[in-house]
Specification:
CATH architecture of the largest domain: Orthogonal Bundle
Mean pLDDT: 91
Number of helices: 11
Helix content: 25-40%
Structural class: alpha+beta
Strand content: 15-25%
Number of strands: 9
Strand order of the largest sheet: 6-5-9-8-7
Largest sheet: 5 strands, antiparallel
Radius of gyration: 19 Å
Order of helices and strands: HHEEEHHEHHHHEEHHEHEE
Length: 266
């Protein structure tokens, strides 16, 4: 419950930020908001492992930097909103930028379970993809990968971030899974999907094996199996052994060095 309360606080902060800066429609430009708050925004040639950073200088001023080599505009936007979250969310700047260390970086794979990184991600999602606007717009598109792609274009966000948001806010059965190789990195479930499981532990997908009969497994292992454009079919219980035997549609999208995005709908 404490985690849910904290997430609700971050959501309210992001929505208040949008109101304060007169943002009334998608897409949201985090650069405009950052500059309005007095932050400098810079594009720099950083290492491939680094997405961006926030730095304190001249005593009390802050700047946000992002990697000029980022693969997509959507990834750049989310990185900027994430760093802006470190500036806006109560307690982040002081905790992350300690005495003698004026720079806080954001890497491709941040430390698992880090509450500051999690909260900055919440802020970025709520800022760039506000719940009410996102749900209203998503209802205009087909359920599944096409819907995720259209919302990513509308919100100017990465497929990864959009897929996560899409699944969590969907009124229908929907699961977004990010994976590498033969293992699930994490999954996000819609409320309808979560309600199929009596215990929250049953919904924990991290480090679960990918079903060998799935399109995701074929794509990740480069197996000589054709990947249908409109997806394939399987069973939810193939992904979660204690799940009910629900037929699901599986759609996959390569994310390059960030793995694979899988969308399960029913």
């Amino acid at each position: 419950m404490a985690n849910e309360a904290r997430e609700a606080e971050v959501t309210e902060l992001a929505e208040r930020t949008l109101r304060e800066h007169g943002v009334r429609a998608l897409p949201v430009d985090p650069v405009v908001i950052a500059q309005a708050k007095g932050l400098t925004v810079e594009s720099l040639p950083l290492s491939d492992r680094m997405l961006g950073f926030i730095v304190q200088y001249d005593g009390s001023r802050f700047a946000i930097g992002y990697n000029a080599r980022l693969e997509s505009h959507g990834l750049r936007q989310f990185t900027l909103a994430h760093e802006l979250g470190h500036y806006c969310v109560d307690g982040h700047a002081l905790a992350l930028i300690r005495t003698g260390v004026s720079l806080h970086t954001c890497s491709v794979e941040p430390p698992g379970g880090d509450p500051f990184e999690k909260e900055a991600d919440w802020f970025a999602s709520d800022l760039l993809m506000p719940k009410a606007w996102f749900r209203a717009a998503a209802a205009s598109y087909p359920l599944g990968k096409v819907g995720v792609q259209r919302m990513a274009e509308l919100c100017q966000t990465s497929l990864t971030a959009t897929g996560n948001r899409y699944a969590r806010l969907s009124p229908m059965f929907c699961i977004a899974i990010r994976s590498f190789g033969t293992t699930v990195r994490y999954g996000h479930l819609s409320e309808t999907a979560r309600n199929l499981f009596p215990s929250s532990n049953s919904r924990y997908m991290k480090d679960r094996p990918i079903p060998e009969n799935s399109l995701t497994y074929a794509l990740n292992t480069k197996a000589p199996v054709p990947i249908p454009v409109d997806g394939g079919e399987g069973w939810l219980s193939d992904w979660l052994p204690d799940a009910p035997k629900v037929r699901v549609r599986e759609e996959v999208q390569s994310l390059g060095r960030f793995g694979t995005l899988t969308i399960l709908t029913a």
